[in-house]
């Protein structure tokens, strides 16, 4: 424009400047292409400068070009034009333009929410403006269609201007904390970094004693003793990193320093190595099971008993050839639930003990060769072959083939065998259903509490395809939010995908995890024969991306990987620094359904308030329709009510079935079991709402996400209040605390403050540590 102006007003043209009208090109916004988002504000800003440097000129343009992406939605188009022309004419001096004068709107005629959206779009104030206008545009089209069809109009989308929120001094003055170790579990041994004594002979908890009843006799066992003490002489190796002595040093402290010093190698696939031996039925049976009454080939965990030298050799190959510093035990299916397929439930303690002890022996033998690189036994806890969140019956979404309590019992028994056998670390791995994992970490932490020891916990999820979700539907972030209450020392991904396919999902997990991060991918995707084709070089090339980007602290391999694969990954990644622990920001309530939901300064509802909408219509007290349907047992129709709540803007769905004429325990369980299978409902967190604590607990045990419990209070007395709160913290729930105490409900300002402060002080301090 400036060049044109200078030519026009000077010789030889000598055009009168007052008759020059520039059209600096009004271009279309709201196309979905990022660079187009600034076209409106760029025109407005340019317009003002042109007027400043080209005296007496005029500015014009084809205004309808601006909103061309919303053609057919005239109200939206004219609202955009009103915002644009007001800014351009009033603030930047635009003089004229080509418009449809009959349809023009004044700014005061534009509806409030539409005005906010259009201003966002024209002035490029937010990257969500186009998405919001597109949704509003679709609503106008849907209204036209509904009118034509004689149907009720659809619900109007609501987009409101965000209101400021109050900021308290404790927020304003918060100083981000640089971590020197991952968040610590709540137990005293963990918080005090107390070395595990590795002396378990005297453990007398009834559940430990019960698990040990399945110990084999010395005549049956492959070992000359059934020792459960693995402590080492304190002077076996020098003090301080990189040396480690069991009973003297804290495994938690050591692993924390190790993972911040270098990327550490885990092992590779056990199954792949076993397959290389081409074992037949008689090898699985050996002498002990030669007359067993069913086929047992394929029960790889049994080989720790029947072919222990093969299993120990595999351990040593990973330790020596692969360079693994941590190795997982051959116990992926060593639970009563998984072993039921072979009718070998009574062998579970022995399977775990023997596998851990073989690994212990292998690690100690290899450590002795180089004490500066101590090797650690990682007790592997698999997902079982059942799912607590998914129905096995396509005709009944509320059917399940296992319960939370059954899983806890099975996992607890597995923990006893693994730890008795000498495990240093426990890993819950290959998680495709987070509810199974929640049962596993509950069992692990119960065992550690009963034993009074600290053992680091690792947790490894499995995203089943390129959707980046577990089999039970959770995103990686949703999975992490669901299990972070267990305070894992390391969290990561394994199995299902090759390294290249894992990359975007590992990055997202690395971005959100507060602890260390690991990965052990498959050697590519399975071929037509079920094998894996990635060579060690292939796997190293694809895994090096994780190390180069600083996403991981521990790496290994899953299906199809072998010691050469692990060695190749190590060589490719050894010079890269491990992922640094993130600096922790202020504490946030971090809930999850299928997706995570973190409540913070940017949380707003559909009215623009800094407020979380808890949908009340799945509550007997909040909806007569809901009450009628649940009394009639019409659960599919109840799901429609829940979906409507989410679509209308509920961040959380409240579920309350308290009624004297209803079996609340059964109703809560059935509703939650069905709701978790409905993605449109379960993508948001649940609020499990009941005045009866047994109903609350039952609802939690069918929910894979991190829920809110509504409610507990001091009206039951301080002792029971502490018991309830501790149990909810172990389940990972957030909690609503009602302002009641032993004297009754808080009515006055003073009573509300007194009871809430008393409750807070009890909850956040020992022994609850909420």
Keywords:
single chain, 770 residues, alpha/beta, 8-stranded parallel β-sheet, 5-stranded parallel β-sheet, 28 helices, 40% helix
Largest sheet: 8 strands, parallel
Shape: globular
| Helix segment tally | 28
- Strand tally, please? 21
Enumerate the spans where pLDDT stays under 50 for 5 or more consecutive residues: none
What is the radius of gyration? Answer: 32 Å
**Which strand-content bin applies to the residues?**
5-15%
Structural class designation: alpha/beta
Mean pLDDT: 95
Describe this structure in words.
- It is built from 28 helices and 21 strands.
- With 770 residues, it is of the alpha/beta class.
- The strands form six sheets. Strands 4-11-10-9-8-7-6-5 form an eight-stranded parallel sheet, sandwiched between helices. It has a five-stranded parallel sheet with strand order 15-16-17-18-19. A two-stranded parallel ribbon has the order 1-2.
- It starts with a helix and ends in a 6-residue tail after the last helix.
- The relative contact order is 0.07.
Describe what is shown at a glance:
The chain is 40% helix and 11% strand. The protein is an alpha/beta fold. A hairpin with a 3-residue loop joins β13 (589-592) and β14 (596-599).
Topology summary:
Layout: H1 2-9, E1 21-22, H2 39-53, E2 58-59, H3 74-92, H4 112-122, H5 129-149, H6 169-172, E3 177-178, H7 188-191, H8 206-212, H9 251-261, E4 264-265, H10 270-275, H11 281-285, H12 303-306, H13 308-320, E5 326-328, H14 336-339, H15 348-369, E6 376-381, H16 404-420, E7 425-431, H17 434-451, E8 457-461, H18 476-483, E9 490-498, H19 499-512, E10 516-522, H20 536-548, E11 554-557, H21 563-573, E12 583-584, E13 589-592, E14 596-599, E15 614-615, H22 624-631, H23 635-647, E16 652-656, H24 664-675, H25 679-682, E17 686-689, H26 693-700, E18 708-712, H27 718-731, E19 734-737, E20 740-741, E21 744-745, H28 749-764
Parallel strand pairs: 1-2, 4-11, 5-6, 6-7, 7-8, 8-9, 9-10, 10-11, 15-16, 16-17, 17-18, 18-19
Antiparallel strand pairs: 3-12, 13-14, 20-21
Helix pairs in contact: 2-3, 3-4, 4-5, 8-16, 13-15, 15-16, 16-17, 19-20, 20-21, 23-24, 24-26
